[in-house]
Here is the input.
Amino acid sequence: MKIYDVENFPNPLRVRVALAEKNALNSVTFIPVDLMNGEHRSPEFLARNPGAGVPVLELDDGTYISECTAITEYIDHAFEGPSLTGNTPKERAVISMMQSRAESMVLDAIATYFHHGTDGLGPELETYQNKEWGQKQREKAIKGLEYFNSVLAGQEFIAGDTFTVADITLWSGLVFGGFCEVGIPSELTNLVKWHEKVLARPSIAA
Ligand SMILES: N[C@@H](CCC(=O)N[C@@H](CS)C(=O)NCC(=O)O)C(=O)O
Here is the structure.
């Protein structure tokens, strides 16, 4: 099993943390992608992932899987350990819903702000920018953080009482926020506490 990625970029980290939670980091060979020089837009890379993004998982039979949600789904079922995507129909549906919210309301909104509202990856890679759209997405992300603060008033983690992929996705949104100065507003105390707890997990602390 191989994973094409850039170490410490927010989306690749989602997959690395899922692997760490499953104690399976050593089962994968990581292949670095020279994203800053546009390798992810080369014909060879686009054949692996037409979406031109990292990470991409390559299975031993040559199947390529992109999108962190799909990759973490694979990891969760391929390796032993506590479930990250749920066991019962209800758990699976709730986790999927919250994961999707964390992605659209925070992670993707911050990513869009980074690429449009700031210098992003630099002029060579940011070939189209819409500053106003970027700013709107920053506002959306802050509202998203407020929403998750309210969710955490009644439960330990984003999708209930256990740590799941939904937590990984929200955490990676905050990692992305670190690249472009979008942090947790201090009044969102439930979210601040959740963040401290998540940062202390061995999979993330490492
Ligand atoms: N929805 C994709 C997002 C992947 C993505 O955007 N990854 C970033 C790195 S964190 C990337 O490859 N960006 C390339 C670019 O912006 O040109 C996923 O879940 O894997």
In short: The longest strand covers residues 2-5. Residues 9-11, 35, 40, 52-54, 66-68, 125 surround glutathione (CB under 6 Å). The chain has a mean pLDDT of 97. The chain is about 55% helix and 5% strand.
